């Protein structure tokens, strides 16, 4: 399957630091990045979500970064989230969870050789505390399958004190239907996405059709359950099915939400919001945009061409 090969290759590129350094330094990259990334600093992030809020959309902010093996970097990530939450609260954007934050435990040191899991959990806990003070909450992004158990364990710990902390489950993983059953409980927020990493056939469906089918199966479990489903997809078929599953389960418009990425299908985001749905936009910001962007390219060759043309000036 050529698109699977391209995807694999692109994801490989996302780990290549030489390529990353060249691309990050290409001046034109910055303009292209703007389409998918809200800027580099906290002020950029706050102004992007203020604009979304003005148009009736919810947001979740992601300070870009992942896979750190440097404790100082993990501390910097934690502190950036703490500052961000304070600024969002000052701007009046956090009450009722209108703007929340998404975290990657690997950016908070989950893979540090010494006590990584504990450090990332402690840092995530500080961010959950700051979010609660600001009147909002946190969602833990899900990364590659080697981290799923550790991330779900950290989630369970955080939910003891901060029960609204959200999880992400990935429909490409074979285990996910069972995880959805476990998490489809009262007060539990679950973002269901297809999954963005390159995973082996032993744990993940490789065929797009199978991933889509599993997405629908998992979504059915979440919509029938007692939790709060967050439908993270740009796929028109998935969005339509989510609407009918919500109707079938007599779910009120405020008992689930749609989620899409910043810069992807913005008109559809507005249409869903204008129709009275809860629509949350995932807004990444910061300097470390390379890995994030390459995963978006891998999903959609049209974006890749747009990006490469701009980088090469052709
Ligand atoms: P897919 O990529 O299969 O596209 C399906 C269809 O959607 C396309 O055929 C097209 O019709 C439409 N479409 C897609 N992109 C488009 C574009 N640029 N323009 C126009 N139409 C487009 N992953 C992960 O592993 N861990 C995580 O924590 C998260 N978090 C997360 C949060 C949120 C809010 C979102 C939306 C996504 C994630 N993801 C994620 C990423 C996710 O796993 C997945 O890689 C992408 O959302 C792409 O999958 P889609 O469901 O959008 O469909």
Find the CATH topology: TIM Barrel
The tally of structural domains comes to 1
Structural class, by secondary structure, is: alpha/beta
| Morphology call | globular
Poorly predicted runs: none
Strand order of the largest sheet: 3-2-1-8-7-6-5-4
* CATH architect. name: Alpha-Beta Barrel
Q: What is the number of beta strands? A: 8
Instruction: Give the assembly state of these chains.
Output: single chain
Bound molecules: dihydroflavine-adenine dinucleotide
Cofactor: FAD
GO molecular function: nucleotide binding; proline dehydrogenase activity
Pfam family, one: Pro_dh
EC number: 1.5.5.2
What does this entry show, briefly?
The chain is an alpha/beta fold and 314 residues long. It has one domain (37-288): TIM Barrel. The protein has 13 helices and eight strands.
